[in-house]
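Hey, I'm writing a tutorial for new members on how sequence and structure tokens pair up, and I'd like a real worked example in the thread rather than a made-up one. If someone can provide the structure for the chain below, I'll link this post from the tutorial.
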Amino acid sequence: MMKSMTGYGKAECELPNKKITIEVKSLNSKQLDINTRMPGIYKEKDISIRKLISDILGRGKVEYSMYLESLGEESNATINGAVVRDYYQQLNSVRKELGIDENQSLLDIIMRLPDTVKTEREELDEEEWKQIIAKVKEALLHLDEFRVQEGDALYKDIESNIQRIQDLLPEVEPFEKERLDKVKERIMDNMKELEASDSVDNNRLEQEMIYYLEKLDINEEKVRLANHCTYFLETMRLNEQVGKKLGFIAQEIGREINTMGSKANHAEIQKIVIQMKDALERVKEQTLNVL
């Protein structure tokens, strides 16, 4: 089953006095790259969250976000009365000393000064965390389902382009025979001219002809290209992460197509090679997003 690295998942956890919303999205990446954002109370669970993401998603650029919405009237922020009174006494004393009228409430000024409000750190409830982590898994599984759907679309597109290369390969054969016949005819004409001049080194001539014909022969490239395409399609059907492997096979396919193009020496074969390259570029582009 082919999966895409692109996906999105979301889950919500309703607790007695708060609501937790979890969102996870992923894009393609060569490795696993995780970025997490969560309220401070849950920071201690960051490592376990990252491990869970790694186990379920495997690879990709992953952005994990956890949002907390308070549903109760309780607050863990309290006014520090002693500090407020001390500030008031000092400010009021200075005001009287300088003869400043009380045209602005001193309390407004005081509440903007440091340490007037203290926040008590909330302790993480492990029973509460069990409910949250279940929802984290749910969001990740939703993302994984999204990846499967995207993977089906990728599979069809990549398969059609590989099949396009396979379909183009037999079209080379008629032009290849025509090309070789013309080359042989040209060589034979040149040989007749050389024989007439009586200045032919037959051994050297034979070596040159063999070299020239081998240089033009693309039969090996055609066989390897066909095998690479078959292997590519077989690999796509594996029930594992195949993205990197498909990328390597695509490179080998490109190497054979390029060699065929450099050896072609025929306008019609070059046209077919260009069509193959076009299909392969689409394959490479889509393969980058395969898990």
